[in-house]
Amino acid sequence: MSLESRIEGDVPVTDAETATDAVGDDATLLVSGFGSVGYPKAVPRALAESGRDLSLTVVSGGSVGEEIDVALVESDSMERRFPFQARPAVQEAINEGRVAFGDRHISSLGDEVQYGGLVDSEDAVAVIEAVAVGEDWLVPSTSIGTTPAYVEAADRLIVEVNAAQPRSLEAFHDVYRPGKPPNREPIPMTDPGERIGGSRVEFDPEKLVAVVETDGRDAPYEFRDPTEDDLTIAENLGTFLEAEVERSPLFEESIRLQFGVGSLGNALMGALGGADFGDRDLVYFGEVIQDGLLDLLDEGELRSASATSLALSTEGQDRLFENADRYAEDIILRPGDLSNSPTLIDRFGVVAVNSAVEVDVYGHVNSTNVGGSQIISGVGGSGDFTRNAPLSVVALPSTAAGGDISRIVPMAPHVDHTEHDLDVVVTEQGVADLRGTSPRERARLLVENCAHPDFRGDLRAYLDRAAERGGHIPHDLHSAFSWEE
């Protein structure tokens, strides 16, 4: 499809270099992108190569590509970054203190940008990738994320129209934004597969300062092949869920699931097709569509899939683009404040399945930092789901570094999710159902059911030493932190 059929009306078409004139040296860039797809490519690259002395604050919805989180960092153009990142260049800059980083929950990010003072809206420029644009509307590309809120909050708008993304992506979008508090009405959605909005993001035409024509593919996740541990974790999770759906009236009619982004989450999605859930419908309500969900749709195992991003591999994108009409019947993309809405997670009774760096013996979860201080990503939407799901699961291998490091530890040096929000831990060793347990009971379950045998003896000894000191949550702080060393 030609760009002429994607650009409608009298809009200011220009090149990326000229478009950067609308971006001040100290501006805030509100960029589209989530799950490493749907992010602008030409304008960030042009800013990085401009030679200007830039001190930009960059706010995305989720992870983006190298054009933003590598090029802008290496050109020393990025001063601040919110709320998620997944590229080594920006991680190194954050850990060295060269880029200031703030981690935020996805569900409230749109509100924080518009109403909470996270950014200075007077010098905010939204740079959004689209598959089509008009004088007062745009159609997002492979993700929606926080795009509607950014477009509304920004003083100026630059739209990149990407010819490498098919116009047929419009059929996936369901754009709806909650109203402004305190008069915000309930979200009128009663089923995860229901559509309640339109396919376009509308805006004040006075905001549109540049439309840039591009033709470049996303650089999305490349999922590794499932390991033996991944497959065993998936088997353990499936066995647990099979028993749970028979036990709990929450799953009489259907099972609603969310999985975190990444290779393990993708493997868990794909493996669930072999679980026996009787005649119950399997429904996905989460942040990202990954390749494993396409497999379930192709096999007829999934009734519908609702998310905010097509976080597919290159092969997965090709597969979806070639069969867009068919997949659009079952896949819906929504803004992040719907895909991650605490209200909807609770309303639909979503089972949350996320991974982690480590879990401590009392059920505290570290999802973001190695050694308690070295950031590797961000909390993303895991907090939205873990805190609000009626059943919250963390799935992870029991060890790291080839078996040299236990991921079940005495005390997490950084906590993203507390023991109050976690119900179940699954590793390749087994399942620990922590519901209805005291801290001491929880600790024994995690050690005996989820820790690797090579570390169980030391963890048992730790719990014995800590118990001698007493307390509701017994700890021996000196030896607890020696594990991190």
Q: Count every helix, treating DSSP H or I runs of 4 or more residues as helices.
A: 18
Q: Helix amount, in percent?
A: 25-40%
Shape: globular
| Biggest beta-sheet profile | 10 strands, mixed
- Which CATH top level class of the largest domain fits? Alpha Beta
- Approximately how much beta-strand content do the residues carry? 15-25%
Instruction: Tell me, rounded to a whole number, the average pLDDT.
Output: 94
Which architecture of the largest domain per CATH? 3-Layer(aba) Sandwich
Q: Count the strands?
A: 25
At the fold tier of CATH, the topology name of the largest domain is Glutaconate Coenzyme A-transferase
Low-confidence runs of at least 5 consecutive residues: none
Ends: how far apart?
56 Å
Total domain modules: 2
- Indicate the multimeric state: single chain
Helix-strand makeup class: alpha/beta
- How would you name the CATH homologous superfamily of the largest domain? Glutaconate Coenzyme A-transferase
Rg is 23 Å
